[in-house]
Design brief:
Layout (H helix, E strand, L loop, with lengths): L4 E7 L5 H12 L4 E7 L8 H9 L25 E4 L2 H4 L11 E4 L12 H24 L7 H13 L6
Parallel strand pairs: 1-2, 1-3, 3-4
């Protein structure tokens, strides 16, 4: 694997969960990983609650945008090492062929952008998604990726996607 390894987080709208994951991995990965996000049907804008949450936690939101996964399926796209779906809808869709033959896993997170209710309830849903993504990315960063055989690594990636489900 080359450094940095390219990681794509996918969601349907690319407005919240995949954006949060992109920012978290780019910062926490400290140059070991280069994260991107995209959607199968992008909304065209990043959710304001996601922007606010990231900024409140000290992350830069400059340059974030909602984009199509087609940008990452072109011959000139960066070769991908990992592709993680973070919503159940995107996981069930037929994905493009990704350059680089990446490893894939499903890390489903409930959609905070779908929550209806008070301001407090919406912010709480975004924070729960953020916390769950932060946990999963921490587990991913702790993997000895270079030392694991492909099958063992795939098993670990799938297990990360199941982690924390009982905790919520």
């Amino acid at each position: 694997m080359t450094t940095p390894a390219n990681v794509l987080f996918l969601c349907t709208g690319n407005s919240a969960r995949s954006i949060l994951a992109e920012v978290l991995l780019n910062v926490r990965g400290q140059g070991r990983f280069r994260a991107f996000s995209a959607g199968s049907h992008p909304t065209g804008q990043v959710n304001p609650y996601a922007i606010d949450l990231l900024q409140r936690n000290g992350f830069s939101t400059a340059g974030l945008r909602s984009k199509s996964w087609n940008e990452f399926a072109t011959p000139d796209a960066p070769p991908l090492h990992f592709v993680f779906t973070v919503c159940d809808s995107a996981a069930g869709e037929v994905c493009p062929v990704w350059p680089g033959q990446p490893m894939t896993a499903h890390w489903g997170i409930e959609d905070p952008a779908a929550v209806r209710g008070s301001e407090h309830e919406i912010r709480r849903a975004f924070f729960r998604a953020y916390q769950q993504l932060e946990r999963r990315i921490s587990l991913f960063l702790a993997l000895p990726i270079e030392k694991l055989e492909r099958l063992a690594l795939q098993e670990r990636l799938d297990a990360i996607g199941r982690s924390g489900d009982a905790e919520e």
